[in-house]
Amino acid sequence: MYDVLIVGLGAAGYTAAIYAARYKLKTFIVGFEDGGMGLTAAEVGNWPGDIDIKGPDLMERFKKHAMSFEEVTHKIGRVEKIAKKGDHFAITLQSGDVVEGKTVIFATGSKKRHLGVKGEAEFSGKGVTYCATCDAFFYKNKDVAVIGGGDSAVEGAAIAAQVARKVYLVHRRKEFRAEPYWVDRVKARDNVIFVLENQVQEIFGEGKVKGLKLAKPFEGNDTLTLDGVFIEIGSDPSVDLSNQLGCVTDEKGFVTVKPTQETSVPGVFAAGDNTNASNYFAQFTTAAGEGAVAANGVFNYLSTVKVEGGYMG
Question: pLDDT over 70 for what percent of the chain?
Fold first, then answer.
């Protein structure tokens, strides 16, 4: 019986594991992708103490820190089901293994949004990708499009422009929502072409992506000939598992949490991009902060609430 089950191997999950271990809580942390969304950040310039570090490298440091504690058990695997079992919780992995714990922290992050246009599903993995910073390397000296106007899209366009011959940045609005830092980086690249106040209607090709069709003409043509399309239009919170326990979500679909990061279900906490905390500001720093608070919340909960096996520990 673990003191806490942490679902998610990103910034929030690993930080929660570090703090839980420091509280001497027997901790089980699991996720199907080690590093979570942190793997998609090619450059991280806002993590305090590191002027410039790659996302995967930062996440590896998070993991190494968490795994330095003997209280932490780490597992790569997909959680298929979670249920209340008496006064504790049980998670069932895709492998069929069942792990039980007195409390839960959902650090499940978010999942990429899809455009929902013709050809998107057909060419997924065949020129359509949802992480420009991850896959730009494969399009060296080729023409690509990045769809979106937020941080991930503009950062992705800046990264892709370092290797691609030409990058079309397609955004439905005239102005960008991204940090000015990334907007300036993109504007400084002479191989980035801005296709603003326009949208994608279709992605087409033969076996692999050949181009996309726009809602209205750009420079006299409503199609762009391309080798790749990076869709970066934001993310939605991953709440499938927390929904299984009946955790309340807000009007945007994020898990509602108290100042302790506890959800509407006693003993169940949430941290990171899946919550309504931190003003929906999805950053490494906010995820880590929420993970720390959630672990503290678990510690206080176990110190005051009797569960199977006694109090904390």
Answer: 97
207 three-state secondary structure: coil
**Dist CA 280 CA 141 (whole Å):** 37
> 3, 131, 151, 273: which one is catalytic?
131
**Distance separating alpha carbons of residues 157 and 253, to the nearest angstrom:** 28
Q: What is the pLDDT of residues 110-147, one digit of tens each?
A: 998 999 999 999 999 899 998 887 788 889 999 999 99
Mean residue pLDDT of the chain comes to 93
Strands 200-205, 192-196: pairing is unpaired
Residue of 134, 151, 227, 247 marked active site? 134
How many angstroms separate the CA atoms of 96 and 110, rounded? 24
Name all domains of the chain by residue range, CATH numbers in brackets.
2-112+235-304 (3.50.50.60), 128-231 (3.50.50.60)
Is 131 known to be catalytic? yes
H-helix or E-strand containing 83?
Answer: strand 79-85
Burial class of residue 7 in the structure, from the number of CB atoms within 10 Å of its CB (0-12 exposed, 13-18 middle, 19+ buried): buried
Could you tell me which residues are beta bridge partners of residue 310? 307
**Residue 5: band (very low, low, confident or very high) from pLDDT cuts 50, 70, 90:** very high
pLDDT bracket for residue 313 (50, 70, 90): very low
Find the catalytic residue in 135, 143, 151, 227: 135
**For residue 295, which amino acid is it?**
A
Task: Quick: pLDDT tens for 11-44.
Answer: 999 999 999 999 999 999 999 988 887 877 767 8
Beta-bridge partner residues of 204: 211
**Known catalytic residue at 134:** yes
3-state secondary structure 86-114: CCEEEEEECCCCEEEEEEEEECCCEEECC
Rounded mean pLDDT, 63-71 = 97
